[in-house]
Amino acid sequence: MNNRPEGDARATRNERRIAARERAQRARAQQKRRQRGARIGLQVGLGVVLVAAATIVTLVLVQSAKPAGPGPDVMADGGITIGQDLKAVDAGAPTTPSPSSSATGAADPVRITMYIDYLCPICGSFEQTNSDYIEGLVQSGAATLDIHPVAILSNRSQGTKYSLRAANAAACVAQQSPDQFFAVNRQLFAKQPEEGTPGLTDAQLTDLVTGVPGIRHASAITKCIDQQTYGGWVDERTTAVQGGDIPGSDLRTFPGTPLVLVNGQQYEYSQPFSNEEFRTFVVSAAGSGQTPTPTPTATRTSSPSPSPSATPAP
C-alpha cells in the first residue's frame, strides 16, 4: 500500500515533466548547434572552393592574356615565301603582294599564296593534285609561293591539338632551316593523319621534320617542337586570320582552308580538284597575256617540271 501523500506524488510527476522538458530543450539546443556548425562548415568549404575556382580562372586569364612570342624571322606576316630553287626569300623582302598587284611582264613571277591547315583533308587533296605543278613554277622562278600555316582544326584531333602542333613544327623549320620549308611542307601532307584522329605525336613530327634531306639545326628544331615555341604565335595568327586579317587579299572574311590566291585573286575551286582547272586559273590571274611555264633548271633535283602541252598551262 502506497502511504505517500497525494501532493507528493503530484510534485514528483511535475518534477519528472520539468526534467523531461529540460532534457528535450537541451537536445534541441544541441541539435541546433550541430546544424549551425554544419552550415558554417558548408559555407567555409564552399568559400574555399569558390576562392580556389577564382584563383584558377585568374591564372588562366593571366596566362591567356600573355602576348604570344614573336614568330619566325622569315614569317613576319604569318607566311613564308619560297622562291626560285625552292629557297626561302629573304625576310627583308615583302612576303605578300598588294591585292591589286598583277604581273606586268613575262619576267615578273606569279605570286601564289596559300593558307593551309595540316589536318585539313581538302588541303591535302589540293596538295596532292597541284603540288608538283606549283613546285615546277617556283623551282624555275616563274612563281613565288607564300605558305601560311594556320590551326583551324585544332579541336578535331581528340584533344591533341594536332593542327597547332604541326603548324608549330613548320614554324620551327621556318626559323631554323627555312630553305627546307617547302620539302617539310610536302612531307607534312604526305604523312597527313585523318581528321578526327590524334594525329602524329611530337616525337613522330620531330622524326618526320628532321628526316627531310638537307635539314639544318635538327637539335634546335627538336627542342622547338618539344616546347611548342611558336604555339602561341600560331594560335594568335589563326585568330587574326579568322577575324579577317588575311595578308595578300582583299577578303574581309576568311573562307576556310585551303585558301589559295594567285596575284591576290581567290581561286574558287571545284571538287574533285583538277590540275587543269588550277592551271587555267593561274594563267587568267597572271593577266597581260602572261603564261608562266615551268622551265627546268640545272639545279632542280625534285620532281620534274610539267612540260607544256595542249592543256592550258602555265
Notable traits:
314 residues, alpha+beta, five-stranded mixed beta sheet, 8 helices, 47% helix, elongated, disordered C terminus
Largest sheet strand order:
1-3-2-4-5
Give the distance, in angstroms, between the N- and C-terminal Cα atoms. 131 Å
* Backbone CA Rg: 35 Å
Specify the number of helices: 8
Uncertain residue segments: 54-66, 94-105, 296-314
Order of helices and strands: HEEHEHHHHHEEH
Tell me the overall shape.
elongated
Judged by helices, strands and strand pairing, the structural class is alpha+beta
Count of individual beta strands: 5
Structure description:
By secondary structure, the protein is an alpha+beta fold. The chain contains eight helices and five strands; from the N terminus they run αββαβαααααββα. The protein has a five-stranded mixed sheet. Helix 3 runs antiparallel to helix 6 and helix 5 runs antiparallel to helix 6. The termini are far apart. The C terminus is likely disordered.
Topology:
Blueprint: H1 6-65, E1 80-82, E2 110-116, H2 121-140, E3 143-149, H3 162-176, H4 181-190, H5 202-210, H6 218-226, H7 231-242, E4 259-262, E5 265-266, H8 275-286
Parallel strand pairs: 2-3
Antiparallel strand pairs: 1-3, 2-4, 4-5
Helix pairs in contact: 3-4, 3-5, 3-6, 3-7, 5-6
Short description:
This protein is of the alpha+beta class and 314 residues long. The protein has helices spanning 6-65, 121-140, 162-176, 181-190, 202-210, 218-226, 231-242, 275-286; strands at 80-82, 110-116, 143-149, 259-262, 265-266. It contains eight helices and five strands.
